[in-house]
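Researcher: Good morning. I'm working through a list of sequences from a screen, and I'd like to move beyond sequence-only analysis. For each chain I'm collecting a predicted structure so we can compare shapes side by side. This is the next one on the list. No need for commentary yet; just the structure.
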Amino acid sequence: MASRPRKGPVARFARAVALGAALWVVTTVGVIVALRWIDPPTSAFMLQSRIEALFAREPGYQLRHEWRDWDQISREAALAVVASEDQQFPEHGGFDFRQIDKALADRESGRRMRGASTISQQVAKNLFLWSGQGWFRKGLEACITVVIELTWSKQRILEVYLNIAEFGRGTYGVEAAAQRFFHKSASRMNRAEAALLAAVLPNPVLMRVDAPSSYVRQRQRWIEQQMRGLGGTPYVSRME
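Model: Good morning. Structure tokens for this chain:
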């Protein structure tokens, strides 16, 4: 009886890579499904921020983060981030293809590219991945976004986003931001305060809540206008 030919090192390596990838997929999907009910204690971005500060020996760095459930967060805060970041959030399945088309058109024309990431994509990136642009990372982000949209409710996606978004250097989540900048809980924030927090989301390190530039104030006013245009806090009830 003839013996089977032994697999070469390339074949063994390819099999190991395939098995590793399959294990990563199964593990990641399992974690995403579990996080529908379990509140994440941290995020990839928080860990990255802490490591960067450690290696840079950044003086005065403090990571602030306090989880708050949906019912403990002002509806104004929820409405503000939707008005600022993703007004099609209740309707889309994770990707806003109209904004993607506009971003690509800006790129082709040489104009400054606008942000096209939805709140769902930002949750996927902030929770599991790293900062940067590469196609590999974007591919992972898209895959994770699909799983999140299939397994989480819109309310859960928004709740997690509100708890892991960065609002200032080392300040993650609306509770930590409300305590740091307004000396109150996230449940007591008013519309102007919520809009100011949302105004710095594009770059919460350069754009500061505690020392808002004229541009940040302009964004704050625009966000308040959008919040009114969406119909106010009853708009958020569509996700509950």
